[in-house]
């Protein structure tokens, strides 16, 4: 799911992740799904199902899922479309990490309209401008340079196309958010070391990304700065995460 990164002058990479210097997602690809369950206490399944339901309801025929990882979001979308209302749809499943896509491929085998390709969220060169109806990313934005990733999302979307982003957020109740961050700061490293066999990168980027990712309204302003309109968000699980949506003007 999450591999795109990038650092440099003007970078807005909340986790300070650089895939060129750390192949952590290749190392954990085979256990990534289990780690997501472990770290989120299975709640990530509810968040992804909510996002997939909205994508499935969208009328767009060309869907580009970026930083797809092991294919969780596309799989949930395809299951919802399996009754026939997805006829004619093309769903691109992309990631910069081949090992992640190798896990996704057998999951998605047999579903019509699926195309799997290596792609970097910062430079979607294989996708022409104004070519997709819906762009989606789940839990990848925290390890991206947001400026570059959002700019590419805007470029590839058709006028009137929709942007979806599911990502870490800020719980509006400050005391509750402080407790959540305390849990992440003190408990997650212990849990992470046990779950990953001591691979600190596997949970280190998660911790930093959750702490430093902008609050919902601030992220909305960043999205608007690139020209998107009708920017909105919906808090899930009290605001632990938020689903952001936006439209490229017609």
CATH architecture: 3-Layer(aba) Sandwich
Determine the N-to-C terminus distance.
30 Å
- In angstroms, what is the radius of gyration? 17 Å
CATH class: Alpha Beta
Q: Any idea how many domains?
A: 1
What is the tally of helical segments? 10
Task: Report what the structure shows.
This protein has helices at 24-28, 32-40, 44-57, 72-81, 98-108, 146-156, 174-186, 188-196, 201-212, 216-225, and strands spanning 62-66, 90-95, 114-118, 132-138, 157-168, 229-236, 241-247. The chain contains ten helices and seven strands. Strands 3-2-1-4-5-7-6 form a seven-stranded mixed beta sheet, sandwiched between helices. It is globular and about 45 Å long. The protein has a single domain, classed as 3-Layer(aba) Sandwich (Rossmann fold).
Brief account:
This protein is of the alpha/beta class and about 250 residues long.
Properties at a glance:
globular; 250 residues; Rossmann fold; seven-stranded mixed beta sheet; alpha/beta; disordered N terminus
């Amino acid at each position: 799911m999450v591999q795109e990164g990038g650092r440099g002058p003007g970078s807005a990479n909340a986790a300070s992740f650089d895939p060129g210097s750390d192949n952590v997602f290749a190392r954990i690809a085979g256990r990534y799904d289990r780690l997501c369950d472990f770290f989120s206490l299975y709640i990530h399944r509810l968040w992804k199902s909510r996002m997939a339901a909205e994508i499935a309801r969208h009328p767009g025929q060309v869907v580009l899922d970026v930083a797809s990882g092991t294919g969780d979001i596309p799989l949930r979308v395809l299951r919802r479309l399996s009754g026939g209302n997805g006829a004619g749809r093309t769903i691109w499943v992309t990631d910069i990490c081949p090992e992640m896509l190798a896990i996704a491929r057998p999951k998605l085998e047999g579903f019509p309209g699926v195309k799997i390709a290596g792609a970097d969220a910062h430079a979607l060169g294989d996708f022409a401008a104004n070519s997709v109806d819906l762009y989606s990313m789940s839990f990848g934005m925290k390890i991206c340079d947001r400026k570059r990733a959002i700019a590419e999302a805007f470029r590839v979307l058709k006028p009137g196309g929709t942007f979806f982003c599911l990502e870490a957020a800020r719980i509006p109740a400050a005391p509750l958010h402080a407790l959540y961050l305390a849990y992440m700061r003190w408990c997650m490293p212990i849990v992470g070391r046990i779950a990953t066999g001591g691979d600190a990168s596997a949970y280190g980027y998660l911790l930093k990304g959750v702490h430093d990712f902008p609050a919902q309204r601030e992220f909305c302003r960043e999205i608007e700065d690139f020209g998107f309109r009708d920017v909105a968000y919906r808090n899930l699980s009290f605001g632990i995460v938020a689903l952001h949506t936006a439209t490229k003007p017609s």
